[in-house]
Every structure is written in structure tokens, then in C-alpha cells.
Amino acid sequence: MAMNGTEGNAEQPGPAERSHRSSVSSVGARAADVLVYLADDTVLPLAVENLPSLSAHELHRAVREVLQLPDIALDAFALWLVSPLLEVQLKPKHQPYRLGRQWPELLLRFSDASDDDVAMDEPSLQFRRNVFFPKRRELQIHNEEVLRLLYEEAKGNVLASRYPCDVEDCEALGALVCRVQLGPYQAGQPTACALREKLDSFLPAHLCKRGHGLFAAFRGRGAKAATGEQGLLNAYCRVKEAVGTDGERGASLSPHYRAYLLKSHELPFYGCAFFHGEVDKPAQGFLHRGGRKPVAVAISLEGVHVIDSREKHVLLGLRFQELSWDHTSPEEEESVLWLEFDGDNEGTPVNKLLKIYSKQAELMSGLIEYCIELNQTSEPAAPQENVPGPAAGSPPPPAQRPQLRRQGSVVCSRLQHLSTIDYVEEGQQIKRVKPKRTTSFFSRQLSTGQGSYTVVQPTDGLEQG
Hints:
Blueprint: E1 3-4, E2 32-37, E3 43-48, H1 56-67, H2 72-76, E4 77-82, E5 87-89, H3 96-101, H4 103-110, H5 115-120, E6 124-129, H6 135-138, H7 144-159, H8 167-182, H9 192-196, H10 214-218, H11 227-237, H12 254-265, E7 273-280, E8 292-299, E9 303-308, E10 313-319, E11 323-328, E12 336-345, E13 348-357, H13 361-377, E14 421-423, E15 425-426, E16 429-430
Parallel strand pairs: 2-6
Antiparallel strand pairs: 1-5, 2-3, 4-5, 4-6, 7-8, 7-13, 8-9, 9-10, 11-12, 12-13, 13-14, 15-16
Helix pairs in contact: 7-12, 8-11, 8-12
């Protein structure tokens, strides 16, 4: 079970902000209607018996039966309790109703929310992608409804800037949304001006901002379309139709859902669990004042990314083999997740240490450990029958796609925007020497990390799910 949070976006609500009240609370002990929310914000009411003792696995099965989803949905999706303050992926054994009743206590432990915000917050029950579902297995899915649900969730994360994207990638993804919503491209229909009317359905909010005042006055009806609108239209006309379809609106949308997911897979944080946090700013000015900046910490089966919540770009991206980590609990001092990685200081190799302040540090540390364990115990991916793949003898695909190496790309690390500690422990002195993972400050590394990850670890006074 994964527990995480994300910074809100004032212009386009993200999955955490699309919370709906009374999903699993204030119900009787016998028959009750449970509201489960899908990635497209549709509501699925379920009539269930004995809700207080109902497990997430049983409720998950009820959702799959109503939606008539195939068996792969058992692994691809999970039930989540979600609010703007906290997100919890449930384990099959957890009982959603009990965790919903424990929500205020979980917020007090894992968030910095005020007492008033805690009292007002209430989670919704959502059917969302399982953070432990490998991307490679998505390529084996053929059921259109499963692909649609994954597409809707990825689209929501892109539009909310939860997945930071470069403009050209936003336009390519937005073009696929145009194809799904508007049908095949037809010359002259729509125009860039027509797309402008509902641009926020295709592009993230920060690319849809309008000019105001004098600038807006100069932009008349005959003015040239904004770059984002014209770029979106150009990308839309390049969307290819699947071989064998007749080009009609009624044709299967599966190829376009899959194309959207494949493009999303290029983003290194696709499928991550998100957590709230803060990092120190680099000291600036005569008084060397730094302060802190809010970040989202994205953790997946592949690694850890620290994302600037305001600027919507990556500050640091690390694969598990590139980092060591640990955390300190509130009982010791302020709750902190520590990330150590190799770097340099003015050309000299050093160990760099990043301090992430977060009451969810314990959860992040546990999730990192569990992801490493899953990677170590999982068998190497083998070609599946009836699944297209590279021809025998062809070179393996690159570990990182070229477009993600673009200079200035939002997915590239920006260490200059971080305040890190350069160190090697040697008594009370700080010396800069070539770092070695085997002599890391921390014992937790890729080569270690045994154990089991438990997302919700309530205090003794809480009911166990």
C-alpha cells in the first residue's frame, strides 16, 4: 500500500484535489451504497453488505464485475483513499471503511495540515493505477476499457502538471486527446481558434493562460493563434490512424489510448506515487537567505524524482542504483528523507546529500525499500506470446529516449536549484573525496533493502486495516 501526497495546482485540479466527500463514511453496518470514483471523475455506486468489515480486495472485485474488466485489472488497478492532504493506496487486506474513520489520525501523523483542515478533510474512494504495476505489462493489455482508464488517469496527471512535460510533448499528448474527443483530423476542422475555446481540455493550465489588458486588446479575432494552439493543431493533423480502421468515429480508440500511454512512458515519473515535501533553497543575496521551496517527491519502481511544485520541472532524478537513502523520524528530530548521490563541486567528485523535509519521510523510505525489493525478486522481463516486440538480433532500445535529454527539458535535473551538502564523514571534518557507494554515509542502498513495505502504519490506538 502506498501513501503519498502532491502539491495542488490552483488552475487545474489534480487527482488529489478531485476529492469527493462521503465515499466511505457515515454508513450503517448492513447494506450501504459506496461511491467509487474512476479516473474520469465518473461515479460508480456499489450496494454492499457489512461495509465496516469489507476488505479492499472484495470491493475491488465488485468494481471489476460492474465494469466487466478482465483479470489483468486485478494487478493494473488498486483502490485508493484520496484527499487534497493525503493519498493512500490500499492493500487487499485493508478495510476502506475503517481507514476512512481513522483518517484524521492519519493526517495528524503524515501531514502538516492545521486542526481545522484535518476536521474538514474527508477522503474519497478511487479506482486508480497500482503504483507497483510495471510499465512493460501495460504494453500487453488489449482490453479497451482498461486502456481507457489508464489513459484517463495519465491525461489527468498531465493536464494538472503533476507530470511535468516539455511543450512539444504536451502538444503531442494533447493531439492524441483531440483525436479521442474530436475524431480523425479533417483539413480545416477544427481551426486553431476553435481549439482555443477548450484548450484546457488538451493542454496543461500553464500553457493555456490568456493575455490581459493592453496585450489582449491587440490580439483581435484575426490575430495569429498562440503557439500552443497552432502547435496543438499541427500535432493533431499528424496523428496517424491505426491500420485496418475505416477512419470513422465509431472505430476502436484502443490504438490512441495505447499511443498516449506509450508517450507517457517516456516521462521518467509515469506511474509514480507522489508525496509532499520541502527542500532548502540555495543561499542568495548579501544575507545568504535561502528558505525552503515546496516539492513533490515521485517514487516508482524505477527511481525517485524531486519535482518543483511551483515551477513544474524536475529538480533531481535518480535511479535506485544511483542513490543511498535514509530517514529521520519526528522522535529524533524534524522528519526528513535523506538522499545521497554522486556529484561534483567545481570539478571535484563529492558525495551530495539532499535533505527533504516531510512528515511523510517514513512512508517514502518504506516505499523506496519495497520497490527495490520488488525489482530484486522479479524475474527478468521475457517476450510474451502474441505481443509485438523487437526483431531477434535487433539492438536493445535506449535506456533514455533522446527527447528527454534536450537541453533545458523540464525532466532534466536542476542541481543548481538545490541546496545540497557535500561531504564525506571523517571525524568532525568535512572532506571532499571521490564517493564510493560501498562507503556511503547510509547503509540503505540498492544492494540492501530487505523487508516488507507497509504504507499505513497506524499507532496503537488506531484500528488495523
